[in-house]
Structure to design on (352 residues):
């Protein structure tokens, strides 16, 4: 018997070579498919989870405009409020600055401080120092605040006004009785008188003024044209009353906003009545729900796509790029609703 090694034919060797190459490509392709189509659902390694877009890694969301709700506490009790006082937590100042720096490094151009009532914490010093830091140290093009205006003093403008681009004051009605019904009031103070006082300070200290109004069952038939034209804000944001589960709707909510809700037709009637107001920027429920990058008091992005606020991990723990993947942010709707505009007072060319 011949025990010498067999010599394979050239044809057999070629077949084995082709088979080996095919196997290598098949394995490589199967792993690529596994990684990119979400076969690893439930893990943090590659992509998935049904809330993640497969293109996020290739085209990560840039946090151009961010709304930081650093406090939930407020001195008003607006019945439709969708960011209620569920905690009293506020980050230490230096940690908040660290998060803001991370956002700037990730592409943030505009920061908006909101609450709650931003001027309630440390009598406005906390938000003042953040405003100064964002404009002076981070050199952001736009720094803004949304406030009910009740806690703002002229001394704040004297100290921090130079660093603030836009101050938005919430005003839902120019009728004091309606403000009482809504909860946009504190004791016997006049919300309207205070608004006009702040208007004069904004002009004196060169801060662009914006008005925010939530249109609801108590004010949808009001005509605010004369007062808005008199104030002449750079923007008048008009929001349709929005329900958010766990905030102003549902068993765990601190507010019951269902009685404030209006129909799309009623909202459109309000818009039609104010069609002559050139600075009006309307936001229906559809435009509003997912078109904001919202950070809560722990610096977690809040995803509102399911009608509630589902938090990401904090940007202080996982960074901006990872946290923003769970924000539910609709950039197309952000642009459609006019989210990007001339937002630096240096570029507004206002006549003070």
């Amino acid at each position: 018997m011949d025990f010498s090694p067999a010599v394979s034919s050239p044809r057999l060797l070629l077949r084995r070579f082709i088979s080996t190459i095919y196997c290598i490509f098949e394995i490589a392709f199967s792993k690529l498919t596994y990684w990119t189509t979400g076969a690893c659902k439930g893990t943090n390694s590659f992509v998935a989870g049904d809330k993640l877009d497969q293109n996020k890694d290739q085209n990560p969301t840039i946090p151009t405009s961010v709304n930081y709700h650093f406090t939930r506490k407020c001195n008003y009790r607006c019945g439709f409020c969708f960011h209620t006082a569920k905690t009293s937590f506020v980050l230490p100042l230096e940690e908040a600055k660290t998060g803001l720096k991370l956002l700037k490094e990730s592409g943030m151009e505009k920061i908006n401080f909101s609450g709650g009532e931003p001027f309630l914490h440390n009598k406005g010093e906390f938000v003042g120092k953040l405003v100064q830091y964002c404009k002076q140290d981070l050199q952001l093009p736009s720094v803004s605040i949304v406030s009910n205006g009740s806690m703002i003093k002229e001394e704040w403008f004297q100290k921090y006004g130079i660093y603030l681009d836009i101050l938005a004051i919430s005003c839902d009605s120019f009728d004091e009785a309606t403000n009482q019904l809504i909860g946009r009031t504190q004791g016997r103070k006049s919300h309207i008188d205070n608004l006009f006082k702040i208007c004069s300070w904004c002009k004196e200290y060169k801060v662009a003024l914006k008005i925010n109004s939530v249109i609801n069952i108590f004010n949808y038939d009001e005509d605010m044209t004369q007062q808005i034209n008199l104030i002449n804000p750079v923007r008048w944001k008009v929001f349709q009353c929005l329900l958010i589960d766990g905030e102003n709707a549902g068993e765990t909510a601190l507010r019951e906003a269902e009685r404030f809700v209006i129909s799309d037709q009623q909202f459109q009637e309000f818009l039609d009545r104010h069609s002559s107001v050139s600075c009006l920027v309307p936001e229906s429920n559809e435009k509003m729900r997912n078109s904001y990058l919202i950070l809560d008091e722990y610096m977690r992005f809040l995803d509102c796509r399911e009608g509630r606020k589902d938090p990401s991990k904090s940007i202080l723990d996982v960074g901006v790029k990872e946290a923003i993947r769970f924000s539910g942010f609709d950039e197309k709707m952000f642009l459609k609703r006019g989210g990007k505009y001339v937002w630096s007072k240096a570029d507004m060319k206002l006549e003070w």
About this structure: The chain has one domain: 65-338. The longest strand covers residues 208-215.
